[in-house]
Write a structure and sequence with these properties.
Blueprint (H helix, E strand, L loop, with lengths): L1 E6 L4 E9 L5 E10 L6 H19 L3 E5 L7 H19 L4 E5 L1 H9 L6 H11 L9 H25 L3
Parallel strand pairs: 1-4, 4-5
Antiparallel strand pairs: 1-2, 2-3
């Protein structure tokens, strides 16, 4: 199974494609970020993010897309903009008939590090270790996107095992 994790942001949207092979080993297929200047009007940034995510979906052919769920932000304006980017990411996936899963930040950290309140640096280090990468993926948004994909793959594998034993 291949999962495209997306870490949504108005200036930097990270992406990471991770595959789980039949022997339950994780493999990093691709990662990077869509970086945009805040000088570009938001509607243009949203359009660019949509176009680039659609191209990435067509190129990489993920089975699923996973994104971080809405979290509570101190700055309401930033939260609204983030919600718009999340909507664009969901639209890109659903327009290609790909299921979208959403995960809370605590769930993602727990799936990757084993502790929901782990520091960002701990998540990045574990992403590199789980994917057997020589270094921590950069930018940080790409590492976060890989963590989101890993979380989805672990969650799906757990659900599959539960179904297999009739839980």
């Amino acid at each position: 199974m291949r999962v495209l994790g997306i870490d949504c942001g108005t200036e930097c949207t990270g992406y990471g494609l991770v595959e789980l092979d039949p022997s339950d080993e994780l493999h990093c297929i691709n990662f990077g970020a869509i970086q945009l200047s805040r000088q570009i009007p938001l509607p243009t940034r949203l359009s660019t993010i949509f176009d680039k995510l659609c191209a990435l979906i067509l190129e990489c052919r993920p089975d699923r897309v996973a994104i971080e769920d809405v979290f509570y932000a101190v700055n309401v304006k930033s939260a609204l903009k983030l919600g718009q980017v999340r909507g664009v990411a969901m639209l890109a996936a659903s327009s290609h008939k790909i299921e979208v899963a959403e995960y809370a930040p605590l769930t993602i950290k727990a799936a990757v590090v084993g502790y929901g309140k782990a520091e960002k640096s701990q998540v990045q280090l574990m992403v590199a270790r789980l994917l057997r990468l020589g270094q921590i993926p950069h930018p940080a948004d790409a590492a976060d996107a890989l963590a989101i994909a890993i979380c989805d793959l672990h969650t799906c594998a757990t659900h599959d095992r539960q179904r297999a034993v009739g839980l």
